[in-house]
């Protein structure tokens, strides 16, 4: 078999290929490619991955430590309409839960109250 542009000549035997160029012979070993050697496998052929629960516990434990530290140490600022108020993050969350609870109560009661509805 000859290569394009006169670069050299490739000759193959059973398991060896030789590339000849300008009197220099370079032997190469021929290895047939197997489809089973492919690193890409279908999900059915791939081995199931084992996810240890230890890593999940470490992640959740670290997350909890950081979350509690942020609740205690971080300051949160919010605008009340008149002023900018500073409080700890846990206080801000507590205010938000109270505000949501009171909003839910008023939003459920208001539509039933005919006097509160505009005409």
Describe what you observe in this structure.
- With 119 residues, the protein is an alpha+beta fold.
- Helices cover 35% and strands 22% of the residues.
- The chain has 2 helices and 5 strands.
- Strand 4 and strand 5 (84-88) form a beta hairpin.
- The protein starts with 8 loop residues before the first strand and ends in a 10-residue tail after the last helix.
Short characterization:
This protein is α+β, with helices and mostly antiparallel strands and 119 residues long. The protein contains 2 helices and 5 strands.
Topology, element by element:
Elements (H helix, E strand, L loop, with lengths): L8 E4 L3 E6 L2 E6 L23 H21 L1 E5 L4 E5 H21 L10
Antiparallel strand pairs: 1-2, 2-3, 4-5
Over the alpha carbons, how many angstroms does the gyration radius reach?
37 Å
What's the rounded overall pLDDT mean? Answer: 75
Number of helices: 2
The count of strands amounts to 5
Class by SSE composition: alpha+beta
SSE string, helix = H, strand = E? Answer: EEEHEEH
**Helix content bin:** 25-40%
Poorly predicted runs of 5 or more residues: none
**How are the strands of the largest sheet arranged?**
1-2-3
Strand content: 15-25%
CA(first)-CA(last) distance? 95 Å
Largest pleated sheet: 3 strands, antiparallel
Shape: elongated
Oligomerization status of the protein chains: single chain
